[in-house]
Design brief:
Order of helices and strands: HEEEEEHHHHHHHH
Structural class: alpha+beta
Number of strands: 5
Number of helices: 9
Number of domains: 2
Shape: elongated
Radius of gyration: 25 Å
Largest sheet: 5 strands, antiparallel
Strand content: 5-15%
Length: about 170
């Protein structure tokens, strides 16, 4: 094969267009959000994850994540005998559940939608805390919300204090 023939078998080049999309010679464009759409008729969208599974189906709906998202609510109350309200463990479960739901449905929620799910999962003192601080919390990312939640409802004891408490606990007879 000479150089000219080799050039014809290469992948078409991508060039940015004025619309912010990367255009290909094949008639498709790839947006910077990862979805590909058919330019010739614009009739279908394909998910970047499951191109073959999504053909012929309607585009993914974000409301499916919020409808199927189920997690125990967080109240911020400290159970007797516990050091804190369990904010770190609850938030880890919340984040994991959310990412799994996004993967299952093939969509990624915006920070505002994640924030709404976060608020919907709070009750009691935790919900009151969010409402009082809503002006600063509503515009935050999920990671920032998690840090603020842990700071507000997490353990306020130092590691040394926790170690002392654990060391001084009386063992229960077996």
């Amino acid at each position: 094969m000479d150089e000219q023939e080799d050039m014809t078998h290469r992948e078409p080049s991508r060039e940015p267009s004025h619309s912010g999309r990367l255009e290909r010679e094949s008639g498709r464009s790839v947006s910077h959000y990862g979805r590909r759409e058919q330019e010739t008729d614009g009739s279908h969208l394909e998910s970047p994850r499951r191109d073959d599974d999504r053909r012929g189906r309607e585009p993914p709906r974000f409301d499916r994540v919020s409808k199927s998202f189920k997690i125990e609510t967080f109240s911020g109350a400290v159970t007797p005998g516990a050091f804190d309200a369990g904010a770190a463990a609850w938030f880890s479960s919340f984040s994991l559940q959310l990412s799994m739901e996004e993967d299952i449905h093939g969509v990624y929620l915006s920070e505002a939608a994640k924030n709404a799910l976060f608020f919907r999962s709070l009750t009691g003192h935790a919900r009151d805390w969010y409402i009082v601080n809503k002006d600063t919390l509503r515009s935050r990312s999920l990671e920032t919300l998690g840090r603020r939640l842990k700071r507000e409802f997490g353990n306020r004891l130092t590691r040394l204090q926790v170690c002392e408490l654990v060391a001084n606990e009386h063992k229960k007879p077996s």
